[in-house]
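Subject: design request, 485 residues
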């Protein structure tokens, strides 16, 4: 063994990463294309899997990268990976990678590949990788590399929440479990504000609504969102968007989905709490309208949105035969929606359901994740929308809570669902200053709820066929109301 090989072996034995033994980053990343192509489809946040019963390897392009941190045992590279979006274009994902000694201990789920030279892992799954990201925000620093520029913009609060370095006495970090479209890190340190730092995986081109809307609400002093503590922007090629956002973390609280499942199973209903949830949504809409403005809804815009609903109904009915029975009635409903006045368009949550709501002591109801539907194009999610879309989303979520309760416990929760929906709707309409039986609002709410149920029918037919009765029951109810006049 020559001296160089002996030195490398010694470093490996110590768990050190010998950067001098690795090829240039461009060469290394090119060699990682195949392992990344096999690993990406296994990630919950990856939304562009090839069709087929099992994940198929992808053709991955490393579009841009920058070095984030180098230490004795790990180097972190921030990469942007491009893959086929199955619509004739390319989708871009953020994937921070950790380079470690080839014999480093790495959990199997975090490991991308291991060679004689290096072990490569998802950096966010490792404490050292999470520390590198947290330090980026705490220091207000950035990274610069071939085709990639990254810059953190921390608010003053984040500097007190994240001590520099963020791995101070008693500090701990972990990945939030259960997420499907992004990756969030929880950082806690005694005597400091807990922080949740969300790294957006799928990248668009333009400002991320999750950052813009929650920052606007934080600036307005809204108690109904966790305070935004900072963010970072990334640019690669001609694109520029948000890479991550940090907010106050509310530990030990339960989301409203779990709360409502428990309440429905027990046959209990806290109508006052649901009215308050409706009132909170009305306040959030009002704050967003004041902070970010509104746009009058003219006939052209209303008809454009209704045309989208008609197109979705036609497409889904062609692939889900049980939806076809409702096409005529829902077509009548959409015609009525074109004849009534619409509220002004504004920025909204865009993907509101019970899982996006927390009951936080000292805060009341708190709304999360203003990113909108992650698979919708970013340009669409940045547009003003009808606030009744959020209301309809919550009504559908309450319906689902009752239906899941019935399936799991064999009880009829339809009465609970009706009362829960009415309490929430009463709170929203009162908070928004809308008469409870305003005919235009009722027609539009039915149209948005039907559109959501049509989408749900398509989703369930593809993913949980035995659940399709849940959206079909809603379509039957809405269609029946239309036929009754």
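Subject: RE: design request

Done. Sequence follows.
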């Amino acid at each position: 063994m020559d001296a160089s090989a002996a030195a490398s072996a010694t470093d490996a034995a110590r768990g050190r990463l010998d950067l001098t033994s690795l090829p240039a980053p461009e060469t290394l990343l090119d060699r990682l294309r195949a392992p990344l192509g096999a690993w990406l489809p296994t990630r919950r946040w990856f939304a562009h899997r090839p069709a087929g019963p099992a994940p198929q390897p992808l053709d991955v392009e490393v579009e841009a990268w920058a070095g984030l941190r180098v230490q004795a045992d790990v180097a972190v590279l921030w990469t942007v990976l491009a893959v086929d979006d199955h619509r004739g274009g390319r989708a871009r994902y953020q994937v921070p990678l950790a380079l470690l000694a080839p014999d480093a201990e790495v959990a199997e789920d975090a490991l991308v590949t291991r060679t004689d030279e290096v072990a490569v892992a998802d950096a966010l799954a490792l404490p050292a990788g999470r520390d590198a990201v947290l330090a980026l925000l705490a220091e207000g620093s950035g990274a610069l590399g071939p085709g990639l520029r990254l810059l953190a913009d921390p608010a003053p609060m984040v500097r007190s929440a994240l001590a520099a370095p963020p791995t101070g006495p008693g500090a701990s970090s972990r990945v939030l479990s259960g997420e499907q479209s992004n990756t969030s890190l929880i950082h806690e340190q005694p005597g400091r504000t807990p922080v949740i730092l969300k790294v957006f995986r799928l990248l668009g081109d333009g400002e991320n609504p999750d950052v813009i809307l929650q920052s606007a609400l934080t600036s307005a002093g809204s108690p109904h969102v966790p305070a935004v503590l900072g963010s970072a922007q990334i640019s690669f090629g001609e694109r520029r968007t948000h890479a991550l956002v940090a907010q106050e973390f509310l530990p030990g609280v339960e989301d409203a989905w779990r709360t409502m499942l428990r309440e429905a199973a027990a046959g209990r209903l806290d109508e006052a709490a649901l009215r308050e949830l409706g009132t909170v949504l009305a306040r959030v809409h009002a704050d967003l309208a004041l902070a970010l403005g509104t746009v009058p809804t003219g006939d052209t815009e209303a008809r454009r949105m209704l045309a989208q609903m008609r197109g979705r109904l036609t497409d889904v009915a062609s692939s889900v035969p049980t939806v076809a029975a409702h096409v005529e009635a829902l077509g009548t409903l959409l015609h009525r929606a074109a004849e009534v006045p619409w509220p002004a368009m504004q920025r909204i949550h865009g993907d509101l359901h019970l899982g996006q709501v927390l009951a936080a002591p000292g805060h009341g109801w708190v709304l999360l994740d203003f990113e909108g539907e992650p698979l919708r194009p970013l340009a669409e999610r940045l547009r003003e929308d009808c606030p009744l879309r959020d209301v309809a989303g919550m009504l559908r979520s309450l319906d689902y809570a009752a239906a899941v309760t019935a399936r799991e416990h064999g009880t009829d929760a339809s009465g609970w669902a009706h009362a829960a929906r009415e309490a929430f709707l009463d709170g929203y309409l009162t908070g928004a200053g809308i008469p409870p039986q305003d005919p235009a609002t009722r027609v539009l709410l039915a149209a948005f709820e039907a559109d959501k149920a049509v989408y749900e029918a398509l989703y369930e037919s593809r993913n949980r066929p035995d659940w399709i009765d849940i959206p079909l029951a809603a379509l039957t109810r809405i269609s029946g109301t239309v036929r009754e006049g």
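The chain has a mean pLDDT of 91.
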